[in-house]
Amino acid sequence: MAKGEDLTCSECAQLNCYRHDKRFPDFCLTESLEPSHLEGVLDIYRGDGPDATLARAAAEVEGLYYGKLTRVEETLAFAKRIGARRVGIATCVGLIDETKIFAKFLKLGGLEAYTVLCKVGAVDKTTIGIADDLKIRPGSPESCCNPILQAQLLNAQKTELNVIVGLCVGHDSLFMRHSEAPVTTLIVKDRVLGHNPAVALYTSKTYCGRLFDEERIKAL
């Protein structure tokens, strides 16, 4: 670790903030908080505003269904607890089959589902300044992902919760940035690992040892 580098939660071996059964390290972020700062955040959670509603609904779903429900089912349970009846789905074209199943599930649960595909607008990548040789298939028509338009169309539908299904890294950031409704993620895209990016971390000492190939990583 570089001299003078700030230590954060990823360097902590105690995790005392969870069960209060150990001790806080000297660099602990919890210990360094000003009481007024912490109380200010707690006041938000204790209030009657939208953030408090989301926080309590999330905690209730976690407490009731931890290890019992899939994330698909938890998403429905969460939506109901925040009073959302109209759910937007921002989906990747590559996961449209999964999205169709999820939309059917939401409707079975008594909710409305409104889906917008990532390629909405059908704008070729070259139109926004992407070189043709950076297409997945150079020389062919290839629409760019359009997460801002996805968000705008869902905003127009007055969705009360938006769900991301497999948007690309970065495109998901743009969608969340422009969504007026709260956003949760159902599927994180990872084309190599079957949409389970945690596998790269679990196998970082074996199959995915390339994660710590310094020269390779610096070239990304």
Layout of SSEs?
Blueprint: H1 16-19, H2 29-32, H3 35-46, H4 50-65, H5 71-81, E1 86-91, H6 96-108, E2 112-117, H7 147-156, E3 161-165, H8 171-178, E4 183-187, H9 198-202, H10 214-218
Parallel strand pairs: 1-2, 1-3, 3-4
Helix pairs in contact: 4-5, 7-8
Please provide a written account of the structure.
With 220 residues, this protein is of the alpha/beta class. The protein has a domain at 32-68. 40% of the residues lie in helices and 10% in strands. The chain is built from ten helices and four strands, in the order H-H-H-H-H-E-H-E-H-E-H-E-H-H. It has helices at 16-19, 29-32, 35-46, 50-65, 71-81, 96-108, 147-156, 171-178, 198-202, 214-218, and strands at residues 86-91, 112-117, 161-165, 183-187. Strands 2-1-3-4 form a four-stranded parallel β-sheet, with helices on both faces. Helix 4 (50-65) packs across helix 5 (71-81) and helix 7 (147-156) packs parallel to helix 8 (171-178). The longest helix has 16 residues, at 50-65. The model has no long low-confidence stretch (mean pLDDT 95).
Proportion of beta-strand residues: 5-15%
| Rounded Rg | 21 Å
Main sheet specs? 4 strands, parallel
Shape: globular
Number of helices: 10
Helix and strand string, N-terminal first? HHHHHEHEHEHEHH
Major sheet: arrangement of strands: 2-1-3-4
| Structural class by helix and strand composition | alpha/beta
Q: Helix content range of the residues, please?
A: 40-55%
Mean of the pLDDT scores?
A: 95
User: Unreliable runs, pLDDT <50, ≥5 residues?
Assistant: none
Number of strands: 4
In whole angstroms, how far apart are the ends?
22 Å
